[in-house]
């Protein structure tokens, strides 16, 4: 990779973490001192982040996986890479810990990194044929019951072919990145993040086909929700959209991947997979509070 | 069993099924003609049903499993037996199909049946120590996320011993009757309905202990919910109660079982289990609507 | 519990662990010095252990879970309690670590312990109606394929009622003690060790009913194996018996439990469950050998 | 597709099915009468089938899935297509039922079909570095315990990176075709048969990482087996190879797919998936024999 000095760097922070806000401000000063333009925004101000993105070489995020994911839903259409500075429980997305970023900054500013391309999910929400919403998902879209514990009927078509109807709590449509999220808890398979495939995995399937399906690129998904209580479409656990009966959710692999700026070596995925999952403690030693 | 002529029969119907309402009315006339007192109520009028129950020998329900379950949450404290006349998809609770009940009526009126005792779940909902709700569940209590797709932390104690903390979509506390409901879809174990034990089964456990637990009589359960979005307590999928952060749900086997009047032979459970589940079609041949 | 001085103590050791052999010998001398009769045998000499058991007050085992389990299959019919001195990876059966047993000896000799009763599985192997073998199992009986990867058809009756036919790799019939063994790996439920119930859990069920069944006391199990290659009956992973086509395996709860001498407090099970399972490392940090 | 008249047709039959042997003979006569060369062999004579394959345009198999699979392990290196004539329970591999093949023959002889390419697994068995066996698998390779019910330790590397060590009953390495076999019974994901990916799925993983892994093309698998009893390598459930302690099994996607001659339309996979699995009855109505 040819190193090319960055000209414009974005800094996106989790607004509820004071140490993240402070570190973003301190790094911004340091980057400007190096003659590089910067902009700084809260991860929750999606419109402001989107407005600042054009012309940006790299976005640094300061927070946990949630902050990276919010940014990754905005940056891909513009081809802007993202590097996560980690303040949360270490996930698979962040690249440096908060206390390592100062040392890593020269490489980041010199573009001395490689870009990992991760498959994104493009969602279209339709009602009576008309598009009523479009979303990108980094981890997954969940089509599920709302508050009441009532099954939803979810009819599935792949590549135009009717597959089955689930009577279930919900249906996870996950990216490879999301394969280590809800899908993992649902006993689903783990895919390397750059694989061009999606996972369809039913949650609590009642006498329905229970195994997850792996769907390759070029085979669009269509899910129609039939229910008499309440159903929702949830994007990355961050947005919750109310569905109406007979609404349709279409899903495909997005035409552009998200780009993660990586300082580590390539082919790291299988090496860090099990230790990374194991780091999450199976059990807190004492109940919090009690 | 000594047959003893019934003196007072209740008829409880699903109000949205006209054929159930009509059949209840017709049978009520026929029973009165035999000199037996009757009362008739909608399953949705729980207060009215409760007021009519004292002194009742047998309640006939006209609807699907939901109608039986509503009645079974009211009748057990009074020791009143219930016989389900089935209008829905055949489950494991109903005793006769709608078109068979006329023929079966003489045996039902003569109390020529045996009473199956099914284990019930008694739930106490506490907030800061104070009781804010008490419920009986025929199938299960689910403590879970609300609409947003966010994990809830659920701390579990059994018999006063701290067991673990789940980071999960929810936790199912099921009776043996409920073992063929949500618990079955969650890959949980099937228990015979009269077994004096409960099932604890996590839904989408994130790096938490995933296996269901079987808890015998005399070992009360305590679950404390910690969350930053929304969590609910759902009783038999019919009642949804909003939880506040740090609310506690206590669960034990109820002191009285529910009583199902049975005309069939005893020890039927293992015989009908797999055919009964199989009758639910794995797949509708065509999507409804499309 | 009234403490009553022991008169006869057995010491059973894993013959391949020199430190277990040595500790058994050293403790035997110390117990004899206290005027108490002892006998010492290898766990692999089952006939010799059985011959020595009558009149024994307590057996100490020196080894891992395998050594305790071998002893527990012999001692229960005589009502002799067993205390495991642990040299292996700590499981749920052993009571003291090897380096703690010297300090614990006075309480053990004074019978200052309580006896935990654990449910045992009694197996009868029949061929054309005739009994060809009888076994006790502490953890589980597995009826499964042999070396070739071919499904076996396993017909199941409970309490004389035909339940289903599995086309599967095998069928686990587990005790509550065995619920944390193969059954756990098969996603099965965990039962407290004194519960009077058995678990039936299919391994790799091909389009068969997949959920485990919990079967209470008084409901005998009958499994008939139909196969065209090879099938085996394995008892606690320690004995492997070749089956012939159409052989029948009957299983019930044994009339006597096994008795574990416990120094710890009662009601410990739910407290140690998750930490005990977690102690087993999910992942060795480096492959052994490579 | 340009239709090109076949010049040489192979007929491979299951030798234990007289009706399969007869139909193969009858069709051979009919094909020869059309001036086309034929050869006919038992599926069990692998050397003879291999010797006859060069120059063959199409092989018809007469039997069940086992017969097709045996042929599919031999034909791919020569690029010969296979069409299965079905005598067994209908699986996903056969193209025509036995009573339909006469009508379908003109299209098959005129090469009026399309060739479905299915991903094959190439296995290398190494001992102390040296190759001791090489195999193709259509469905899966299973590395597992032998007759005794003892866990095997299976160390996994992907693309040269150490992933984890399983303590398990076995490890399934499945093709997309095999995703509806053992892998399905193990709750694993279903992949479309032409996807260039493999599945790694542990059977009864004891406190090991339980989720299946999807591994794309170009990421070779290496599994090292460590055990103290017995372990085997099973290819498609048809060949069983004894392993020695510390043997290594390497697996990659084979450089050539297997070719299935298809008369049906393309993109059929998702349409037939659930009905095809459902056709296998969940439960025989009566036990065979009893």
Cα-atom Rg of chain A, whole angstroms?
A: 20 Å
Q: Which CATH top level class of the largest domain in chain A fits?
A: Alpha Beta
Biggest sheet, spatial arrangement of strands of chain A: 8-7-18-15-10-11
Question: Which architecture of the largest domain in chain A would the CATH scheme give at its second level?
Answer: 3-Layer(aba) Sandwich
Number of domain modules of chain A: 2
Oligomer type: homotetramer
**Name of the CATH homologous superfamily of the largest domain in chain A:** Probable inorganic polyphosphate/atp-NAD kinase, domain 1
Number of strands of chain A: 19
CATH structural fold name of the largest domain in chain A: Rossmann fold
**Measured distance between first and last alpha carbons of chain A:** 53 Å
Mean pLDDT of chain A: 92
Envelope shape of chain A = elongated
What are the segments of chain A in which pLDDT stays under 50 over at least 5 consecutive residues?
Answer: 281-286
Helix fraction of chain A, binned, reads: 10-25%
| Succession of helices and strands of chain A | EHEHEHEEHEEEEEEEHEEEEEEEH
Number of helices of chain A: 6
Percent of sequence in beta strands of chain A: 35-45%
Question: Sheet bearing the most strands of chain A, described?
Answer: 6 strands, antiparallel
Find the biggest chain interface: A-B, 44 and 44 residues
How does the helix and strand content of chain A classify structurally?
A: alpha+beta
């Amino acid at each position: 990779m040819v190193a090319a000095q960055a000209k414009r760097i974005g800094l996106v922070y989790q607004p509820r973490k004071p140490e993240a806000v402070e570190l973003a401000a301190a790094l911004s000063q340091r980057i400007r001192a190096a003659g590089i333009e910067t902009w700084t925004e809260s991860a929750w101000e999606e419109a402001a982040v989107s407005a600042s993105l054009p012309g940006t070489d790299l976005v640094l995020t300061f927070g946990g996986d949630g902050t990276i994911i919010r940014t990754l839903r905005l940056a891909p259409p513009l081809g802007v890479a993202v590097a996560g500075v980690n303040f949360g429980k270490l996930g698979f997305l962040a690249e440096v810990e908060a206390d390592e970023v100062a040392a890593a900054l020269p490489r980041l500013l010199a573009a001395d990194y490689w870009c990992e391309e991760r498959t994104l999910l493009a969602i279209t929400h339709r009602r009576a044929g008309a598009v009523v919403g479009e979303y990108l998902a980094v981890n997954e879209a969940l089509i599920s019951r709302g508050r009441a514990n009532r099954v939803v009927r979810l009819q599935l078509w792949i590549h135009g072919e009717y597959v089955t109807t689930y009577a279930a709590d919900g249906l996870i449509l996950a990216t490879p990145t999301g394969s280590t999220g809800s899908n993992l808890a649902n006993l689903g398979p783990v895919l390397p993040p750059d694989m061009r495939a999606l996972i369809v995995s039913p949650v609590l399937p009642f006498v329905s086909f229970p195994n997850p399906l792996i769907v390759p690129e070029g085979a669009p998904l269509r899910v129609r929700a039939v229910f008499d209580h309440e159903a929702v479409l949830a994007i990355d656990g961050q947005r919750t959209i109310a569905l109406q009966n007979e609404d349709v959710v279409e899903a495909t692999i997005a035409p552009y991947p998200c780009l993660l700026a990586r300082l580590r070596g390539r082919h790291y995925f299988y090496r860090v997979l099990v230790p990374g999952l194991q780091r999450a403690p199976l059990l807190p030693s004492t109940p919090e509070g009690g």
